[in-house]
Structures are given as C-alpha cells and as structure tokens.
Design goal:
The structure is a homodimer of 184-residue chains.
Chain A: E1 3-6, H1 10-14, E2 20-25, E3 30-35, E4 38-42, E5 47-53, H2 59-65, E6 67-72, H3 78-86, H4 95-98, E7 103-104, E8 113-114, E9 119-130, E10 134-147, E11 151-152, E12 155-156, E13 164-169, E14 172-181
Antiparallel strand pairs in A: 1-10, 2-3, 2-6, 4-5, 5-10, 6-9, 7-8, 9-10, 11-12, 13-14
C-alpha cells in the first residue's frame, strides 16, 4: 500500500459512514478502539465528530493529549475491527499485536497510525460535549493520508478492489463496493 | 411496505452510516433536504446528531419547532436523494412532489414523514452547536418506525432485498447489501 498526503477533501473519506479505528497515545503508551459513530462536521478546514465511551482505556490518552487518529479499514480487516471493539485495553493486552495491526508514526500528533488502514486522519480535539458515560468529540483534522490506489481525483475509487466496512450491530457488518450515480 | 413502531434500538438503523432525508415543518408549510452527516450519539434513550447548513430553507422549520424527522432511503431512491440535496426549497418547488415522495403524518412531531423511506425517526432538538454557516443538532428520538421486512429481531435484515445508500461525493453513492460477520 502506498499512501499519499492530501491537503483537502478529508471529509470525502468519512462521507460513506464506515466504521473506524481510533488510536491515541502519549508517546509512552497507546491504545486503539473501534468507533461506529463518526462523521465529518465541516469540509474545509476539515472537522470531524466521534462519539466515544469515557470508560475506554484509550480515552485517557485523548484527554491527556487532546489528540487522536481516525484509521479507516477495508472490509477484509473485519476481524481486527470487531476485536478492537470487543477487547478492552484495560486487560493489558496489546491490541495492535493481537489483531495484526502495525503502528506507524503520525506526522503531527503523538497517536500511532494504523498501517493496515487505507486512510489515516490525524485530529486535534477542539470541543468535548459531555454525554454522560460517553463524550462527543469535535476535532480538527490536521493531517490526512490515503492509499493512492483508492483515492483518485479527490474521490474514493473502487476500481482497485476497495470494500468499505459499515457496522450494523454486534459482530455484523455490511460492505459497500459498488458505485451508484444519481441523476436529477 | 408495512412499517412497525419500535421502542428501542433506533440507533441500529443509523449505525451503517446511510445518507438520509431530513424533513421539517410547522403544520402549515414544510421542507425536505438530504443529509450525509448523521449518526447516533446515544443508544437508549436514543439520541442522534445531524449536521446541516443554516441556509437550508427547511432549517427555518427546525429552528421554529425544534423538531425534525430522519427518513432513511433504500438505494433505489437515489435520484430523489440526490434531487433533495441539489434543489433548494427556496425556489418554491415542492420537492416531495418533484421527486415522487409522499408525506405521511408523524406521531409526535409536526414534520411530515416520507412514506417511501424504509425507516422514519421523529426527533426533538436538545442542543444546537453553532458551527458557523452550519449547525450540529443533537436530538432525542421520540418515535421510530421501520419496514418490518427489513428489521428483524432488532437488526437490519438484508434478506428481503434491502440495499442501503451511502453518499460518496457529488452525484456518487455506494450501496451496501451484503452482511459480513466478524470473528474474534
């Protein structure tokens, strides 16, 4: 996989509503968990929203650093997506190792990026909305890279076998890989 | 299509990240527009977030009533989904009529529901986060109905031909209709 930086259009990657991995870390330790509830909230400069439980082991790193990364998996990574949602980092398990995920260094934040994700969005939290046991985080996207095989002319391309993974519930997901063009 | 009320699990309908129609009205007049950026933010009692431009003709009804409905289309409605995003209600056009959408009466809110959507979520705004030209609306889901052919045992079912529609960018969408089960 060969990833390229993009300087606009990060929202395009999240538009279709894929499930994502969120990573965070402080340079000493780190963690990863799976997030179904994510979306863009501004095009340019890009902003995103994610909803996450304040109980997540990894959430402490987001609180401490104000940073996280969104890592977008292809459908073939479904078991690692489910696993990072099912297993808690509090168990002491290294979920990266357990689920075959490789840490890459981010450009602008301390969180690790997941090499096996086809896109990585580095984010800095700008607002935290307390939802009780969970928090809605609004964040600026400060750096974005995407597999050049799957992002062509500013759009996601399915020509090279990209399959997006969407969470249904529990261990069930659905996949999208076919483009439909609307007409008005 | 035969819709049934459901009293829990509304978030399951939005989990996979479909594009939706948002409707609003004051009992005298109404409108509809297409929203790519939507997600659940709480399971029970269900809450959702949608991002919408404050310029939308229909947004005035949301401000006035504090209410809107989320209407989830199947992929076969792609042209009406694109159309309701492309055409402004400010033109005076009745987008329901223009794009073949039928108004149904909601149970608890003044907004019309779209009969052709396979699911309708009636929502009351609880918080507005000003994002400049757009607003992030957090809302309680106060009533939910879903096509009983496509929602079985608390889950979306693809056994009867359901195809979900996800927005990519511009006039391009992708569709999901195939379930993938993860294993840990």
């Amino acid at each position: 996989m060969s990833k390229m930086k993009i300087y606009s259009g990060a929202y395009v990657i999240l538009n279709p509503g894929s499930v994502v991995w969120v990573t965070a870390g402080d340079g000493m330790s780190d963690g990863v968990f799976t997030v179904t509830w994510n979306m863009p909230v501004r095009k340019e400069p890009a902003m995103v929203a994610i909803e996450c439980s304040q109980n997540h082991h990894t959430y402490q790193f987001i609180r401490k650093t104000g940073e996280f990364a969104i890592n977008v998996p292809e459908a073939k990574m479904v078991n690692a997506v489910l696993g990072c949602g099912r297993v808690s980092g509090k168990t002491g398990v290294d979920k990266f190792e357990k689920f075959g995920l490789t840490r890459d260094k981010a450009e602008k934040i301390k969180a690790p990026l997941i090499r096996e994700a086809f896109a990585n969005l580095e984010c800095r939290v700008s607002q935290v909305i307390d939802m009780g046991s969970s928090a809605l985080l609004l964040a600026q996207v400060v750096s974005t890279q995407v597999d050049e095989a799957h992002f062509v002319d500013g759009k996601l391309s399915f020509d090279n076998g990209l399959e997006l993974l969407h969470h249904l519930t529990g261990d069930q997901f659905c996949i999208s890989s076919k483009v439909l063009v609307g007409k008005v």
